[in-house]
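Model it.
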Amino acid sequence: MRAYDPLMAWMYVIRPVRAGVVDDPTEAEARIVGDHFAYLRRLRAEGLVRLAGPSVVAGDTFGIVLLDTEDENVARTTMESDPAVAGGVMRGELRPFRLAVY
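Modeled.
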């Protein structure tokens, strides 16, 4: 068991800009979301993304991306470079995150 050692990290929350993105995406939205998943998988392989995934609740779907960095600039650049955010399919909100149990 690890001793308590809080680690500061960053996460971003993403929300679709329109409800239909999740259940009935346009062809362009589907392509951008595919690019988004490829981006997250690549960053996971590189060790920057700790975890990512959606909370799928009808009418209130959102996703989180937890980053393994204490550097806000790295986190902001990562969020803004996410194809879903950069492509205007999702809005991103960057937040500091303290890892307390990991």
